[in-house]
Amino acid sequence: MTWTDEDLVARSKGGDLDSFNQLVLRWERPIYAFAYRVIGREEDARDVCQETFLRAFRSLSGFRGQAKFSSWLYQIAMNLCRDWIRRQRRARTVPLAEGVDPAELAAEQGPVESIEDLVSRRELSAVVEEAMALLPEDQRTAIVLKEYHGMTFQEIADLQGCPLSTVKTRLYQGLTVLRRHLERQGRTPRLVPQLVKRI
Amino acid sequence: MSDTFQCGDNTALVGYLYDECEPAERTAITAHVTLCAACAAELAALESARLQLASWTPPEADLGFQVVGADVGVHDSGRGPLTSIGAWASGLRPGAFTRSGAWGSQPLPVWAQAAAACLIFAVGLWLGVVRGSTPDASPEVAPAAASRAELAALDHRLSAEMAELRTATAATAAAPQGISEAQMLARMSALLEESERRQQRELALRTAQVARDFDSQRQTDLAQIQRNLGQIEGLTGAEVREQRQILDYLMRVSEQR
Predict the structure, then answer these.
(1) How far apart are CA A16 and CA B49, in angstroms?
(2) pLDDT in tens, B67-109
(3) Which of B48, B84, B99, B105 is the mutation pick for testing A, counting most A CBs within 10 A?
(4) Contact B177, B69 (CB under 8 A)
(5) Nearest CA in chain B to A152
(6) ipTM surpasses 0.90
(7) Which entry of A9, B136, B197, B217 is 20 to 30 Å from A83 by CA?
(8) Which runs of consecutive H residues, i.e. helices, occur in B60-180?
(9) Model pTM?
(10) How close B192 comes to chain A (CA, Å)?
(11) Nearest to A72 by CA among A86, A83, A57, A85
(12) Inter-chain CB proximity A171 and B14 less than 8 Å
C-alpha cells in the first residue's frame, strides 16, 4: 500500500521513524536537484538536502498541514539555499563545466541516444548551467521550481512570498536572459514545431 | 484575468507559455499571435529556451539519508545552517540523522571522542618517553634493565585501562536515550578528569624514570671517561719512556764516536 505524504507525516508525528524515512526517500532526490540547480555545487547541495530533512524532522510537530508537505520542504530548502547564497556573497555559484570525456560518454551511452547526441546534450547542459548561474537568485529559483518541479505560479508565489505577477515577471526575465546567453554561445533557439503549429 | 491581450504583455505570454491562463485569455493570445509576428517570435524564443532547459540534469548524488533515532539534537541550532557533511555528522548525538554508507550507523558521542583523544595522547606520550629513554643497548646499564620490567607492567596496565574504557564507552553508548544533557555532561567531565589524573600519574612516573636513567647513564659515562683517561695516561708514559731510551741510545752512540 502506498501512503500519501499526509499519512506519512501523521505517522511520523506519532514517532514512526520509518514513515519519516519513507518521506525522505520520496523527496530527497527532488530536494537535492532543486538545491543543486539553485546553488550549483554538488556537495553543498547535498548538505542543503540533508539539512532540509533534519530541520523538517525537528519541526515536524509544528507542521499543521496548511500547505503540502512537499511545499513545506521546498520552503525549508529554499531558505537554506538563500542562506548559502548570502554566505557566498554572490560569488560565482556554478563551477564552469569540465571537459567532456568521450570514453565516459561512450560508457554511459544509452540504447537509443548516439554518442554525438549525448555529447551535444552534455554540452548544452553545461551551457544551460552556466547561463542559469548568471541569473539573480529569485529568477533562478522561480525557473527551477517551474521547469523542474512543476509548480504552479501560485505555489511559487507562496514559496517566494511575492505576488503572482512577480513570479511571471521573474520567469519572463529569467528565460529572456537564458535565451540571449544561449544565443551568444551559439545555441540558436530553434522554432518549436508544436508552437509553430499552434501559432 | 482579462479576456483581451495587449501586445507586448510579456507576463501574459508567460501564462500562455506555461498553460496557466484563463481560457478566454488563451483564446485572445492565440488569436493575437497569428497576426503579430513580434509576439509569435517572442513566444517561440521563450519556448525554445524552455526546451534547452530540459537538457540540464544535476549530477548523480549518493544520498540515502535516514533518521536513525528520534533524538535529533537541538544542540546544533546555534550552528550555521550549512556545514560540511563531516562536521555535520560529527556534531550529532548517537541516534540522530545521518547518511547511510558515509559514516557508521551511530557516530561516537562527543565525550567518547574526547576520552579517546585523551587516551591516544597518553599512549603517544608514553611511547615518546619510552623511545627517548631507551639506552644504547649497553649491557653495563643495569637500571635500564630494571625499568623495562616497569615498562612492561605499565604497558599491561595501560592495556587494561584501555579495555576498561572501551567497556565503559560501549556501556554508555548502549544506555537509554533518556539520559539528560546534564548527566551526559557530568559523565563526560568525570571521564575527562579521570583521564587527566591518569595522564598526570603517567607523566610523574615517566619523569622519575627518565631522571633515573639519566643518572645511571651519567655514572656509566663518567666511569668510561676515567678508564679512557687512564689508558691515555698509560700510553703516554710508555711513549715517553720509549723516547727517553732512544735519546739515551743516541747520546751513547755520539759519545763513542
Answers:
(1) 44
(2) 776 555 433 333 333 333 333 333 333 334 555 433 333 445 5
(3) B48
(4) yes
(5) B20
(6) no
(7) A9
(8) 85-90, 110-133, 142-173
(9) 0.52
(10) 31
(11) A57
(12) yes
